[in-house]
């Protein structure tokens, strides 16, 4: 058998290929479709898992023990800031170059104390000139005074001689006229001397402005200029001229300004007792009282400003500190038993499944706690006798999709 015959024996006929294709099982398409469906199911399941387990962003606040919060017994609470009723930016009253700055932040100064010095060479020269001119004017006054005395004597003598017929009446009249003229010159020079004295006073005042003094007792809070800078009471373009040396605050004039919602301003009255708690010292209660209710409202915030006086002075109280003020109906009793439980913001309590609940955040999860808040007629906080501990982080305004055990991420406000 030749090679050609062998090749013909190996050839597959067409009908044999068709029989093999039709009877040999399914093609690759079912596998491709099945794999695609499995991938889509996996992606859908993963997406559902991610969306169902993604952290829910929330804002939280800490529950505080009722015994450590000044709001117990308060009819209203408001927040504000420490302000100084007596505060001034000390500036030069003349334009000049600073030669000395004698203050630093935190320095206690007395009224009249020198805070800075300006270059005084020009004003010293002007003062010396004014003094010299005033002295010259007074010297002329003395000269005219002496001349007037002599002219009066001559006039009296000539009048006596004229009566005796020894001199003419005209000579006596001329002597009297000369005395009157000298008197007028004396009066004019006296006014010139007074003007010279006024110029001396003006030059002394300007020279005194070269020393910048404290207007009242207080504490330096800012130092705004350095030696070599030009200061002026008038603002100059370009930012190269300073208008202030520093800021002084009278710490005895510190008080609290709070914004009270206009819907509750009727609960606040002048001289009403209050307690202030600084954000920096939350355990320190400061007795206070209402000074005045400012007769103006802020239409943007719907609030009314209330001035509150703190009855304790302390170096820890500084301007612009945040303060929470509790307005009280009466002075708090010295020995009152604090209520049991914790205080939480009222907006942390929500209705879920027919009961009031709060969500406590721990280890990145929200845990629902059923609570029974104590009855409270007003205020932004509620007393919870049980179920929540002091220091727990509670969710503020819990969203509707928040549930027990949900993952949460705490957002800063």
Reported for the largest beta sheet, the result is: 6 strands, antiparallel, barrel
Mean pLDDT: 82
Derived structural class: alpha+beta
Give the tally of β-strands: 24
Report the span from N to C terminus.
96 Å
Q: Secondary structure elements and their pairing?
A:
Layout: H1 3-10, H2 14-23, H3 29-53, E1 56-62, E2 64-65, E3 74-84, E4 87-90, E5 96-101, E6 108-109, E7 114-118, H4 121-163, H5 169-208, E8 211-213, E9 218-223, E10 230-231, E11 241-242, E12 246-249, E13 254-261, E14 273-278, E15 285-298, E16 303-310, E17 322-328, E18 342-345, E19 350-352, E20 355-362, E21 365-370, E22 381-384, E23 393-396, E24 406-410
Parallel strand pairs: 1-24, 10-11
Antiparallel strand pairs: 1-23, 2-18, 3-13, 3-17, 4-12, 5-7, 5-10, 6-9, 7-8, 9-12, 13-16, 14-15, 14-17, 15-16, 18-22, 19-20, 20-21, 20-23, 21-24
What would your notes on this structure say?
This protein is an alpha+beta fold. The chain has helices at residues 3-10, 14-23, 29-53, 121-163, 169-208; strands at 56-62, 64-65, 74-84, 87-90, 96-101, 108-109, 114-118, 211-213, 218-223, 230-231, 241-242, 246-249, 254-261, 273-278, 285-298, 303-310, 322-328, 342-345, 350-352, 355-362, 365-370, 381-384, 393-396, 406-410. The longest helix is centred in the middle third of the chain and has 43 residues, at 121-163. The chain starts with a helix and ends with a strand. Residues 332-336 have low confidence and may be disordered.
